[in-house]
Design goal:
single chain, eight-stranded parallel β-sheet, 11 helices, globular, Aldo/keto reductase, NAD(P)_OxRdtase_dom_sf, Aldo/ket_reductase_CS, AKR5G
């Protein structure tokens, strides 16, 4: 993994290339805030942008992409269908709304945001239609436990390419990660930096000193060496650049294991089984 760069990609199960490092925009306000943040990320070299209809900033993301001067085909764009948009016809409408707000002809990745009981299979049928039509280059899910994936996989024509879940040193989700690996589903991390909750951890600070990096950079590097796509978020240009500066060092196996032992099965967000 040492030879990775910000341009490096992982090949998804359908052959599509997805950057290992992306930029998330959860809770980044529509308008100047999201436009400036996304433009700063693209200027830094990020080529993967992750949004969602629920974030209510798709229009700003699209505007930033257009104003950045980076060719559309060079950007890997992800958005997600929200819970109250799920169902077959509803999802087709939601996709078109997102596409128009983003001002793009296609999406690189479309995700089911949460596994809504009784809805996500019909939502997936709509995803498969959009995928077969060429409107989406890859389709996937978010916040799916193993039992959700098992239920979905019973009937799919196209297997999910990605499962985006809460993933960080306090929630390593080893069983889910292994399950996805065995089935060719790429794990992707949201809230990789635990909203800063680990930045004063004594052991993590020691590792930061050892490698002459910040605690955030140590965590993001741990993600990548665990072969997990990661999408940190910031609105500060210097922090956006800092989060991308993780390709000039490599954590030892011993230090990787040390970070993994921080696991407490502790969530920052909701448990998918309790949320929907």
């Amino acid at each position: 993994m040492k030879s990775l760069s910000i341009e490096s990609t992982v090949t998804l199960n359908n052959g599509v290339e997805m950057p290992w490092l992306g930029f998330g925009v959860f809770k980044v306000k529509e308008g100047d805030e999201v436009v400036n943040a996304v433009k700063a990320a693209l200027d830094t070299g990020y080529r993967s942008i992750d949004t969602a209809s629920y974030y209510e900033n798709e229009q700003g993301v699209g505007q930033a992409m257009k104003e950045s001067g980076v060719p559309r085909e060079s950007i890997f764009l992800t958005t997600k269908v929200w819970n109250d948009q799920q169902g077959y016809d509803e999802t087709l409408r939601a996709f078109e709304e997102s596409r128009k707000k983003l001002n793009v002809n296609y999406l690189d990745l479309y995700l089911i945001h949460w596994p809504v009981t009784g809805k996500f299979k019909e939502t997936w049928r709509a995803f498969e239609r959009l995928y077969e039509e060429g409107s989406i280059r890859a389709i996937g899910v978010s916040n799916f436990h193993i039992h959700h994936l098992e239920e979905l996989l019973k009937d799919v024509q196209v297997k999910p390419a990605v499962n985006q879940v809460e993933y960080h040193p306090l929630l390593t989700q080893k069983e889910l990660h292994q399950y996805c690996k065995e089935r060719g589903i790429q794990l992707e991390a949201w809230a990789p930096l635990t909203k800063g909750r680990m930045f004063d951890n004594a052991e993590l600070l020691q590792l930061a000193e050892k490698y002459q990096k910040t605690p955030a950079q140590i965590i993001l590097r741990w993600d990548l060496q665990n072969e997990v796509v990661t999408i940190p978020k910031s609105t500060t240009p210097s922090r956006i650049a800092e989060n991308a500066n993780i390709f000039d060092f490599e954590l030892s196996d011993e230090d990787m294991e040390k970070i993994s032992r921080f696991n407490r099965d502790s969530r920052i967000g909701r448990n998918p089984d309790d949320f929907v």
